[in-house]
Structure formats: structure tokens, C-alpha cells
Olfactory receptor
Amino acid sequence: MPQNNSVTEFVLLGLTQDPLRQKLVVFIFLVFYGGTIVGNTLIIVTITFSPTLGSPMYFFLFYLSLSDSCFSTTMAPRLIVDSFSAKKVISYNECMIQVFALHFFGSLEIFVLIFMAADRYVAICKPLRYPTIMRRQVCLILIVFAWIGSFVHGTTQIILLLRLPFCGPNLIDHYCCDLQPLMKLACMDTYMVNLLFVCNSGALCSFSFIVLMISYIVILRSLRNHSAEGRKKALSTCTSHIIVAVLLFGPCIFIYTRPPTTLPIDKMVAVFYTIGTPFLNPLVYTLRNAEVKNAMRRLWYIKTMTE
């Protein structure tokens, strides 16, 4: 339970106080959130019903799309609804739940991206052992580990937050509840708490990004021994994964690996990785992946023929 806490609700200042800009925010976020849900749902349905997308890569892509949809849903709907309200109020408990959901689904996405990189490494660097190493049971164990690891990460964040006393003011200069804006309101010195947050969220983002980049460097170096067609296909897949990793980890590292200060640009950076990245991921994985596009066409063709 929170210690010496007299605050029962927080007031979110949102992205802007200008009425005209708020209407623009509603439109932009409706488009981005709608595109995120539609795009990721199409990927999930395609992978679920297409017999040609049964490889481990698409097994992990299924969970990446699922985590993207949930990650965006923790933020976008409330931001859109709050844009119509003069006073954007969120209760203390709702705020804590939002922080947990943000970090739970965010870390789930990070774990899945790491497993996708491992899958590509085995497929490209150890092709003969690929069916043995990346068998179905191993993939299931990895996904269970991702859910457990994400739960532990999210729970750790909440435990640290619940120990912070909030005695006023209760104005959060952000459009959602997150670590840095909340620590700024705490009625205590948060240096050590922020250090723990950096060791948790910051280290998770930084270490994962380094591991991913090293793995893709190794993969790209190994492509020299492949045929021209094999290099082209592997390079296309790896490029997609690298784009997604940079789009996600760049903003996260900027937010969670620095001292407990808030900057004016923080809101836009947060918008990018909470709303923008989940919207872009389906485009990256479909427009650059011929197998997914072909599977979608076949499913659409079957649907139209049966009607």
C-alpha cells in the first residue's frame, strides 16, 4: 500500500491545452489506433488460419502483434476520451494499473523481439539444426518465459511506485501515468528509487537493444556464405526486425535511462513508442514480407469464393 498518501486521483494535463490542437489529437490518434488494431488483427488472423505460416518466426510474430495491440490499448483509448474532457482525471488505482499494463506489454514486446532475433540467428547461421533447436515445445517455453518475465517486470515497477508518498500537487504533466512524471510528484527524495527504475526499465531496454544489434550483426556477417537469393530474403527479414527494434528501443532508452527529470520532448517521444511503433509494426512486417502478403491474399480469395 502507498505510504502517507493523501492523493486519491491525478489530473492529466494531456498533450496540449489548446482546444483546436486537442481536436487534431483526437483525429490523429483515432487514425493511428484504428490502424494499429486493424493491422495487427489482420496479422493475427492470417497467421492463425494460414497453414503456410506455421514456422517459429510467424509464431513469434503472432505474439508481437498481440502485444502491440494490447500495448497501444493501454494508452490510446483513454487519451482519445480525455481529449473531449475539460478535466482529465484518473484515479490513483487506475494510474497504477496503467503503469503496470504499459510495462507489462512493453516488456512482452521486447522479449518477443529477442526471440525473433534468436529464431533468425538459428535459421540463418545453423540451418541444419534449425528444426531441432526451434521446435514447437521450445517456442512455447520461450513465450511462457516472456509472459512470466513481463509480469515480474511490471510488478516490480508497481511495488516501487506504491512505496512513494503523494501528498500534492496531483497534476501530471503528461497524457498518461508513467514513472518519470509520477516521481516528480512524490513527496520524498526519489534519487534511489529512480536508480532502481533505471536498473529495471533502463537496463532492460539497453541490454536488450545491445543483444539484438549484436545478434543481427552476426547474422548479416554470416550472409556472405549464402546464395544471392538466400541473402536477399534473409536481408529483407532482418532489415524489418532491425527497423522495429530501433523504433521501439530508441525512445525507450531515451526515457528510462536518465536522471529523474522531465523534458518538453518527453510527451512526443512517449507518443512515438506507445502509439506510433505499434501502428508501424504491421506495415513493416506485411509490406516487407511476401509470405504474409500472399497468405492474406489467399485467405481473402477463399473468403470471397465461399460467399
The domain at 9-306 is CATH 1.20.1070.10 (Rhopdopsin 7-helix transmembrane proteins). The chain has one domain: 9-306. The first strand starts at residue 9 and ends at 12.
